[in-house]
Design a protein that fits this description.
Two copies of one chain form a homodimer.
Chain A: E1 6-12, H1 20-36, E2 40-46, H2 49-54, E3 58-60, H3 61-64, H4 68-75, H5 97-108, E4 111-118, H6 120-136, E5 141-146, H7 162-180, E6 187-193, H8 200-203, E7 218-220, H9 228-241, E8 244-250, H10 281-293, E9 296-301, H11 305-308, H12 315-333, E10 339-345, E11 353-359, H13 384-390, E12 402-403, E13 406-407
Parallel strand pairs in A: 1-2, 1-4, 4-5, 5-10, 6-8, 6-9, 7-8
Antiparallel strand pairs in A: 2-3, 10-11, 12-13
Chain lengths: 412, 412
């Protein structure tokens, strides 16, 4: 393999997470080694993903992050420090001018290493850019680096960003369980958790089972059709056992006909990828419980905090996110291209992972659902196997640096 | 002063906070000293406040918390470990049998020290029980220990529990500001914060101003009538300056006629104290901005996490909460009764407090609002004086003890 010499560029895309900047830090650390070995001259950061790249909005990341201390702060900063975008790339067959434009910019800046940190839709971008540059004979190593709190990417055991979201959800669920237990009055509390198609995040509400023995009475995932009669019967039976019933639901729960439980409250808006904006499953169920069961009921939407509560990040997740970013730089230097980095769990008693790669075309536009053996028979909770899978991902706490009582963040 | 010998009892009442158990720990620590000196035989904990006391649901707290380690865990446990209630005591003039019943239980257990940790409504209970037992000539020292995330108690500089809620809100606001800044699309994010009558919690969203320079564009408090035209003009002008507008509102914001901004979504339910259940100001404004300004808009209700996110508690708040509980035991031993403990801020450059007492009758059923000099002229933000008042209260982080990735809690 010949050494490919030139510059590198990295971008962040899709929804933010608490760990996406840790991955960026890893790419920067890897790029510093590539610069030291003479492989690259610098690593550019594209502002607002591929959209900003098309406008040549680039910054010199090796100059900006010139100390380990700055990188430590970057690793504890939530959301995409470089900004993000939600641009859907046209098909290659469309022969859209956007690809020519991209190629011209790659040439102008002598970009030979392209890193894109994102989820499903971003891997689609990586796949298309990789195939286009290959077709044109422009030598550039194109690497997708996974990130999504949703944990719904194929092949990788889990995704960077998920562990921190899971830790936030598991911790917050325990705090809400304590809060809801103080009164003797019958009451139902519904925690609405992110997850459009996959129920990984909602499942994380149950992690406490194997830590302290406390968890919500029920967890409803989008992997099972939602049955209102069964739900009301579940809640009734729980209220017979104890006064404070706590339920976790995924925002994506839907009836057998595919319509969302919260759809009565939806406005029908869709994002550029055609995903429906979801919210309101909790509010809808709140109204129904009030009407049918007549008890006090409250719904709590965990909302954005699930992806940005970096102060309670999982150390395991942050460490892995940095490692994945660094491994991406190494893999590119080794000649890999059109791959996505993966985290592979070693089949051992104790949790251990290695980092690998997979052809990015196998990843794009697919969704990894919670498997059948992780969901209980009644479809209203998760199995011990599921908790065993989740528990290692929330281990460890980061030593957050605070200034005057608030966590310190990098702002570019 | 003669030494009053007997037993002590402590209860928790009203809504939970992240620090109410730290105060309980302080009372236990103080009671251990009283036991050592022979003043009391034990400290009972009443389960579910005065309601549980009436059913003689008592536990021996000195036996349960027999180590410093257990008390440390208690101090990091959110919500009322003893359970709570929302019982409104009848007026003394009603000559309700409840008072005779209470007196009989006091006598049965030889209760001579009565500690009640709570907010405004709980101080009403303390005042009534204190006056009743005095009237009957039953010697018992009755002490109110303040707690409320709302910070709306009179005379005390601030209330235990507020600092931790403020730190959660200030931290979460910064994380949301980072999250909202990633896209270039015009968007408005509304953070709805607790506070029925007083805007202290919403004001805390602005603390970042003096730490990192970032804060929401506007903060709307219930101390000012809400004007929809002015609000829309504020938001329009902010959107002209930058794409990502973030607004903090108190749940209690209302129009000049007193009707709540979220009232279109209210169900009119009231709690036993006649307070309206509030929610929905953010959702109401979300709909109006969507309609009038046509941009992307999202509302986030911080909800219960404001009072139970103990993992991000303020060390200043937790330390003061313990100290106030301990001081309550000492004050009772010194002969004080029918008082509420206060935190008094020393008028110095650097933050310093002492703990005092005030006649509880001066506290009950009053609300301390955010003063005029803490609110800006336009009524859409807070002044530097306000931030200077708030900033010391969120200082310091507790060393949370974790087990298997989750904070450890005491469950009684």
């Amino acid at each position: 393999m010949s050494i490919l010499i030139g510059n590198a560029v990295v971008g962040q895309s899709g929804g933010p997470t608490s760990a996406i900047n840790a991955t960026l830090s890893g790419v920067i650390k890897g790029a510093k080694e590539l610069k030291a070995s003479g492989t690259i001259n610098t690593l550019y950061g594209m502002l607002n993903g591929i959209e900003g790249f098309l406008e040549e909005r680039l910054i010199d990341l090796l100059g900006f992050f010139d100390s380990e201390d700055k990188l430590s702060i970057l690793e504890q900063t939530p959301a995409s420090a470089l900004g993000s975008c939600r641009k859907k790339m046209p098909s290659l067959e469309s022969e859209d001018v956007i690809y020519e434009k991209l190629l011209a910019i790659f040439k102008k800046y002598n970009i030979r290493y392209f890193f894109y940190i994102g989820g499903n839709d971003s891997m689609d971008t990586v796949s298309k850019i990789g195939r286009y540059t290959e077709k044109c004979g422009y030598e550039m190593r194109v690497i997708g680096v996974p990130k999504t709190i949703d944990n719904d990417l194929m092949i990788t055991d889990h995704t960077p960003g998920f562990g921190s979201a899971a830790k936030y959800i598991a911790t917050t669920t325990q705090e809400i369980l304590r809060d809801c237990s103080v009164y003797t009055l019958k009451a139902v509390t519904i925690i609405e958790i992110m997850g459009r198609d996959a129920g990984w995040l909602a499942a994380s509400a149950a992690i406490g089972r194997k830590v302290c023995g406390y968890e919500p009475d029920f967890v409803y995932l989008p992997e099972r059709d939602f049955d209102m009669d069964k739900f009301l019967s579940d809640v009734r039976s729980a209220l017979d056992r104890h006064p404070n019933v706590v339920i976790a639901i995924s925002e994506g729960i839907h009836f057998a006909d595919g319509s969302y439980v919260g759809s009565a409250l939806q406005n029908g808006a869709v994002d550029v990828f055609g995903h429906k904006y979801l919210a309101g499953g909790g509010k809808a169920l709140e109204g129904i419980i009030k009407e049918k069961l007549g008890c006090k009921v409250r719904s709590i939407e965990l909302n954005l905090c699930q992806r940005c509560a970096a102060h309670i990040a999982s150390k395991t997740d942050i460490d892995e996110s940095v490692a994945v970013g660094k491994a991406a730089a190494n893999a590119a230097a080794q000649g890999e291209s059109r791959v996505m980095m993966t985290i592979d769990r070693t089949p051992k008693e104790t949790y251990e992972v290695s980092i690998g790669t997979v052809c990015v075309d196998e990843i794009a536009n697919q969704t990894k659902l919670v498997p059948d053996n992780f969901i209980n028979e009644e479809g209203n909770g998760v199995t011990d196997e599921c908790v065993d899978y989740l528990l290692p991902l929330i281990q460890g706490e980061i030593s957050t640096i605070y200034k005057d009582g608030l966590p310190v963040h990098v702002i570019i």
